[in-house]
């Protein structure tokens, strides 16, 4: 029987909001993840067998993994079996983003379509577990500068994980085109997940994003195409399709509500857009998930 992956108990919430950080040992008996917006970044070390679900894709993992959760990317997790684990939750404010720490959160570990799950060998597991144990001990200490020390521990875990990734995957903000593309992609992702059918997307076109970024739409388009190889409109369309699939599979909203939430004035427009991009009608995706 599948069990839900343990997450922080409800009494963690007030402490998390107050301090912006919490490290703990994973408890599989507590409530499981739901498919919705998380309020915190999460890094967890777990040994066992799991299935992670992201919108229209899933990852099945075994052995020991290091998982990176972004508060803007919804996911759920099923625990097939588990022996032990640690986790830490933290906010951007707690990390006190500098240019250096911001680049860590822009790494493939936290990006949509990146590499949020890494498999560890026994030596790597022992090394990372030691860092978690230090964080847990430090958060209960009276040391005046413990928050700074904990930030260093978080950075240490991220750096250890990045060393397992090919260096060519790292985003290097070397020029204006790269910077504007990174900001566009971040702004695009911040609109998701859609949680209220009565609050439709505000930014739906390349011109909408250009206006928000205070640049000419042609400059935005050329920058995004230069850096990613894909037009701005393709990124927007792909993300809307991804969210549409998630809403069809994980909510009971009717298709008209989903269409409106994603910025379409009429369900017919949404149906045509979805079929053009996927080759299927929305109703067939929902039927397949039942």
TrEMBL record:
Domain HTH araC/xylS-type, first and last residues per copy: 205-288
InterPro entries membership: Homeodomain-like_sf, HTH_AraC
PROSITE patterns, per the entry: HTH_ARAC_FAMILY_2
Any Pfam family hit: HTH_18
Highest taxon of the lineage: Bacteria
Keyword tags: DNA-binding, Transcription, Transcription regulation
UniProt-recorded name of the protein: Helix-turn-helix domain-containing protein
Protein's organism: Spirosoma endbachense
GO MF annotation list: DNA-binding transcription factor activity; sequence-specific DNA binding
Keyword DNA-binding listed: yes
PANTHER family linked to this entry: ARAC-FAMILY TRANSCRIPTIONAL REGULATOR, TRANSCRIPTIONAL REGULATORY PROTEIN
Keyword check for Cytoplasm: no
